[in-house]
Design brief:
Layout: E1 6-12, E2 22-24, E3 30-31, E4 33-35, E5 46-50, E6 56-59, E7 68-70, E8 81-83, E9 90-93, E10 99-102, E11 110-117, E12 120-127, E13 138-142
Antiparallel strand pairs: 1-5, 1-13, 2-4, 3-8, 5-6, 7-8, 9-10, 11-12
Length: about 150
């Protein structure tokens, strides 16, 4: 099933020996963290929308002024930042019903995919070769915002 614009929780699809973790935005201009599903703080529901050039943007509900996914540079080893400087991402259907999130790049022979590193999201380069390593896969779980309690 292809991804549709909407509100989602973005969860890792880890190897069987690990627990899944959810992309969590806490403080602006810091890396997007990964936490278990229940956390008393941070943003775990993301607004995923189409952007130019077949890319996607991922923001906190309410728009880019509330923060979203960005990066300082388009390079492996960079953190995925929770920032108001939103950047586009490639989101392609992967295996296990999940999706691969990667940096749009013209580099040949590599995919710069979003992975988990030291408790936060980061960009890692994966070579495109015959025995290619498995790319990190993410599940987009449809979500909704809680009703206003006013």
């Amino acid at each position: 099933m292809s991804l549709e614009p909407g509100l989602y929780q973005i969860r890792s699809i880890p190897p069987p020996e690990l627990l899944p973790e959810y992309a969590t935005g806490e403080q602006r201009e810091t890396p997007v963290l990964v936490w278990p599903k229940v956390t008393p703080f941070g943003i775990q529901v993301w607004d995923v929308a189409r952007a130019e050039d077949d890319q996607w943007i991922i923001t906190a509900p309410g728009g880019p002024d509330n923060g979203g996914w960005g990066r300082a540079n388009d390079a492996p080893g960079e953190d995925v930042l929770f920032t108001t400087t939103i950047r586009g991402w490639n989101i392609r259907q992967g295996e296990d019903g999940g999706y691969v999130i990667s940096v749009p790049t013209s580099v040949i022979g590599a995919i710069w995919a979003v992975t988990i590193e030291d408790g936060h999201l980061a960009i890692k380069s994966y070579p495109v070769i015959r025995d290619m390593p498995e790319l990190p896969v993410w599940k987009f779980i449809p979500a909704h915002l809680p009703a206003n309690s006013d």
